[in-house]
Write a structure and sequence with these properties.
The protein is mainly alpha-helical. The chain contains 33 helices and no strands. Helix 3 packs across helix 5 and helix 12 runs antiparallel to helix 13. The chain is globular, with a radius of gyration of 33 Å. The N and C termini lie far apart (85 Å).
């Protein structure tokens, strides 16, 4: 009897659990359905957008009782994740507010919380989108116009704060200005006096801003044929044009106009007071930028007219294309399809605008928003989808960029050459090379011949030398890269008289016979050191160096590294295997910075015709800690490397070295923080009596102290690296300027352009790192007594965050 009762009760429990699981599963299904309905509204459909919105508003209203929080969160997520459909969602919120006033209020409150959190955590792009959404909510009768204007006033008041960087006030002014195309007409009609006062304050701010930073961010130094405007100046000119047109524009889709009868009856909400968080020295604000312009209406042969550079439509279209790229950058096929499905594509020259926006991002200084390869792969995808039109627009853009390359920033020339080489490699390297043949007669240091040569060098990495020879006309012979090969001087004619030749051949035989590192070192021990005044004592420890020796042994390094790289010259893998096997010897031979520089010089002698091999080998030597970053920097600035100094691969090595040093510091920093967190957690557990013998190993205070010492050493090494780089720049530029002044010749030579802009590039590409040491640089190197041309670069950099 009792068993039957127990069984029956068990069955009831099982049934109850199953019903509970079913209900949970049903809830999840409904939530997923709601998310799908909300996120997909506004996409292609057999029904009109208006009927879809009306139907969705009714569905959501019915589900508010059970799924209100979920619905609110999905809508808030759409505000920042699907900004291209902003007007669709403001209309939906307007319809929900008309049906359920409390729901509208709760949504606005949640959005305001998100805005405050975004401003507090420095998520400025999200904050800008929320401000814009709130502005459009005024049009949907969700928010009172006066309360939005109060929020705008609070943002603009940031310009009156004392002791703040200009980038802070810039962002708050930009957040307001970028929302005006959506809401200005409504504000003008309902709050004209207050709105005009706001505009006057903005105008006053724009006219008084410092613009020292602008030259550092320009793609071109010339304003011909298109002015290179600072972003706030350009947007303000577009806003003033919008004002002259009585706040009417032709680009924004406003689905809420169809529901005006319903929406105007709705009660509106007043925004709470929103005070921008006070300035914090640790806050990083978005950097200023210069607006990129490549086309105007005369460049578009036929069809729709390209909007003028100061028309608000130009800003709105570019902003929407930028949004599509941000939303879809992880998948090039989806991104290309979304771009070509642009809502008003028949009213604008879409291909021209897509190409201009993509190049504006590729050339954006300091760094592009996404990997450079993204733009190359996306442009190829667009060419595939529109083979009849996109390749022609891209070819026209390439010709225009090439024609204007003389005034283009060095960083942008480098990115342009990388993109063009990649693009050509996907189209059998076909190009109208004859049109560029005049560059073959120019000074090879001028931008045009330099660009063509660098394109061929990069293209050769993606192909092979003979293909490059066959690709370009014979007239380009002077610009075709040398065939990559290794130079082994100990096998050349006359090598018999060189010191070390016999040992080099013995070493080759020994390594081919699979000798041990110790046996290889025995062969090197009898080589005389050219730096010694007299021959050293012949008694060496097998792997040691006598105390009386100089700091390094150039002949040993030269012989051993030459042999090793010669034997590993078949491929990268062979070279890596050789370095790995004899890592210990390399570390011993190059245990001082002078030795490391000599090792790098020897590598250059062997592989001077193979730039990619040098780039890869230096990276490997840094990774295996055979050479230090400071040694690489000193080698690149050495007199032996002067003929190579303006070649792009040198700076590829330099930037890779800085990044590798940065990664090492970041890793050590993370390790210290993780160790401290573990120790704190363990101490809390111990205090609560929850310690477990099986807990993972807990770092002690001594271990953390040693880790902090390693971190401090790495940070000092990083600081020293930047000091070396900037000091050497100052030395070579000062020397050049003094010589030019002494000889009464123009200092602005092609060499000077490459070098001064490389200095600027180091500042910009590594701006976050360099800002850590800005006070040291200011007090030690960039003082008032150095030449103004050099100091100006430093001042422009400082102005980026001032």
């Amino acid at each position: 009897m009792s068993r039957r009762r127990r069984d029956s009760s068990d069955e009831e429990d099982v049934g109850h659990s199953a019903r509970k699981r079913r209900r949970g599963s049903e809830n999840i299904d409904i939530e997923e359905r709601l998310e799908s309905l909300i996120t997909r509204v506004g996409e292609k459909s057999t029904s009109s957008l208006e009927s879809n919105l009306e139907g969705l508003a009714s569905v959501l209203e019915a589900d508010l009782a059970n799924y209100k929080t979920k619905i609110m969160r999905i809508l808030c997520s759409c505000v920042v994740k699907l900004p291209e459909k902003m007007a669709v969602y403001t209309t939906l919120v307007g319809l929900l507010n008309a049906k359920n006033y409390n729901c509208g209020g709760e949504f606005v409150e949640m959005l305001i919380r998100n805005l405050k959190e975004s401003l507090k955590t420095g998520e400025y792009d999200n904050a800008k989108l929320i401000v814009r959404f709130l502005a459009d909510c005024v049009n949907c009768h969700v928010i009172v116009a006066g309360s939005l204007l109060s929020m705008f006033d609070n943002f603009i008041e940031v310009t009156l704060e004392d002791n703040i960087p200009q980038v802070r006030s810039d962002w708050y002014v930009y957040a307001v200005m970028s929302a005006l195309p959506w809401v200005a007409k409504e504000l003008h009609e309902k709050k004209e006096a207050e709105f005009n006062k706001l505009l006057s304050t903005i105008d006053n701010y724009i006219s008084k801003r410092q613009k020292i930073h602008v030259p550092a961010l320009r793609v071109w130094t010339s304003d011909f044929p298109h002015p290179q405007e600072e972003y706030l100046d350009c947007l303000w000119a577009q806003i003033k044009n919008l004002r002259a047109n009585k706040w009417s524009e032709k680009q924004i889709v406003r689905p809420y106009l169809a529901f005006d009868g319903v929406l105007c009856e709705a009660l509106q909400h007043t925004l709470p007071q929103i005070i921008p968080p006070s300035h914090n020295e640790e806050t990083t604000y978005p950097l200023p930028r210069v607006v990129f312009r490549m086309f105007d209406y005369t460049d578009v042969p036929e069809g729709p007219v390209l909007p003028g550079s100061h028309s608000i439509e130009r800003y709105l279209i570019e902003e929407q294309i930028d949004r599509i790229l941000r939303t879809n950058f992880a998948e090039r096929k989806d991104c290309a399809a979304a771009l070509l499905s642009f809502p008003s594509k028949n009213k604008i020259p879409l291909n021209y605008m897509i190409v201009e926006v993509m190049f504006s991002q590729l050339f954006l200084l300091p760094v592009p928003p996404y990997l450079e390869i993204f733009y190359g792969s996306l442009l190829i995808e667009l060419c595939k989808l529109q083979p009849g039109s996109m390749p022609q627009v891209l070819a026209q853009a390439t010709e225009m960029l090439y024609e204007r390359i003389d005034t283009m920033n060095v960083t942008c020339i480098e990115r342009f050459s990388n993109w063009f080489a990649y693009h050509l490699s996907n189209f059998q390297f076909r190009w109208s090379w004859d049109d560029w043949s005049t560059c073959c007669q120019m000074d090879p240091e001028l931008p045009k011949p330099k660009f063509v040569k660098e394109v061929l060098l990069k293209a050769m990495r993606l192909s092979y030398h003979q293909r490059m020879v066959e690709t370009v006309p014979e007239s380009f012979e002077a610009l075709i890269p040398e065939k990559p090969h290794s130079e082994f001087k100990y096998e050349k004619e006359g090598a018999g008289s060189m010191p070390g030749t016999m040992v080099a051949h013995q070493l080759i035989s020994a390594i081919k016979s699979k000798c041990t590192p110790e046996e290889a070192m025995v062969l090197l021990k009898d080589l005389p050191n050219p730096l010694s005044e007299e021959e050293s004592d012949p008694t060496y420890h097998v792997l040691g160096i006598d105390e009386g020796d100089p700091t390094y042994h150039p002949l040993r390094i030269d012989v051993f590294v030459s042999v090793l790289l010669h034997l590993g010259n078949k491929s990268f893998s062979h070279s890596f295997a050789a370095i790995a096997k004899f890592h210990h010897i390399l570390k011993l031979l190059a245990d001082t910075e002078e030795g490391q520089i000599w090792l790098l010089r020897t590598m250059f002698e062997v592989w001077s015709s193979h730039q990619q091999m040098m780039v890869v080998l230096v990276d490997k030597l840094l990774k295996t800690q055979i050479v230090e970053p400071s040694a690489v920097a000193n080698w690149l600035f050495s007199s032996e490397m002067q003929p190579e100094f303006t070649k792009f691969y040198v700076w590829e090595i330099m930037h890779a070295t800085i990044r590798k040093m940065s990664k090492q510091v970041d890793k050590l920093q993370q390790d210290v923080e993780d160790a401290k967190d573990k120790l704190d957690a363990a101490k809390r557990k111990q205090a609560d009596g929850l310690m477990d013998d099986e807990d993972e190993e807990i770092p002690t205070d001594d271990i953390i102290e040693r880790m902090e010492e390693r971190l401090e050493a790495a940070q000092n090494q990083q600081k020293r690296l930047f000091l070396i780089i900037f000091q050497r720049f100052i030395m070579i530029l000062t020397d050049h300027l003094a010589k030019c002044e002494g000889n009464s010749i123009d200092y602005n030579t092609p060499w000077y352009k490459w070098v001064i802009e490389r200095l600027q590039q180091i500042f910009l590409l590594h701006h976050e790192l360099v800002f850590r040491y800005i006070s040291t640089l200011e007090s030690l190197l960039f003082t008032s007594d150095i030449d103004f041309h050099i100091l100006e670069i430093f001042q422009q950099f400082c102005a980026l965050r001032s």
